[in-house]
Amino acid sequence: MKAKVNFIIDAIMFVLMGLLAGIGLLIKYVLVSGEERWIKYGRNVDIRFWGLDRHHWGVIHLYVAIALIIFLVLHIVLHWNMIVCLYKRIIGNRKARILCGLTFMIVTLLMVLFPYFIRVETRELASGRERFQNLSMKEDDSSIDESIQKTKPEKEKVELVADVQEKEEELHHHIDPSIEVRGLMTLSEVRRKYDIPCDYMKQKLDIPLSTSNSSKLGHLRKQYGFKMSELELIIANYKK
Predict the structure, then answer these.
(1) Helix (H) / strand (E) containing 26
(2) pLDDT on residue 144
(3) What angle do CA 114, 103, 64 make, to 5 degrees?
(4) Together in a domain, 112 and 132
C-alpha cells in the first residue's frame, strides 16, 4: 500500500513539474509583456490563452508551485526513515549533522521568504507606444545614414509628446492635488472613490473592456504601459 502511495505522489510531482515549466514558457514566450507586444505586433493588443492573460497565468503558476511543494513534503515524510539513515551515513559526526541541518533549513526559509524583506526600485515608465518608438529609433541608429535621417522627425515628435505630457501632469497636480491613485488599487476602488466609470477609464487608457474591474492598477500599468499620472489626469478631466 505504501509503495502505491509513493508511486502516485511521485507521478503527481512529475506532472506538476512539467506543468510548472510549461506555464513558465507560456508566460515568457507566448503571452509576452506590453513592450514585447509592441515589437511583435506593432500595436498594443490583448493576448489571452483560455481567456486568461499573462498575469492570471502567473497566479496559476504560483498555485502549481505551492501544490508541488506540498507533495514534495509528503514525499519526504513517507521516506523520512530512509533519509535519516542516509544522512547519518554521509555525515557521521552528530554536531556536524545538526549544523548542516540548521544551515539547510535557514537557507531554505530565506529563499522562500526573501520577497517580504527586499526593497524594490520604482520609476515612472513611458507608455507602451513611446517605448516601442524609442526602441525602433535605437535600432534605426545602427543602420545607414539615410535611415537615421528619416527617424529624426519621428524622434522629435516623441520628445514633443513627452514634453506635453509632462506639462499636462504638472498642470493636473496644480489644479487638483487631492487625486491620487496607487498600484495596489483596483479599477473598482478607483470608481468608488472618484465616481468614474470603469469602462471610461479603460477606453481612455487603451485597456480592453473585457479586463476585470478587480484588476490592480500596478499589474495593468505593467501590461498596457500607461502612467499613474495619466489616470489621475483622466479622473480630473472627468470630474470637470
Answers:
(1) none
(2) 46
(3) 45
(4) no
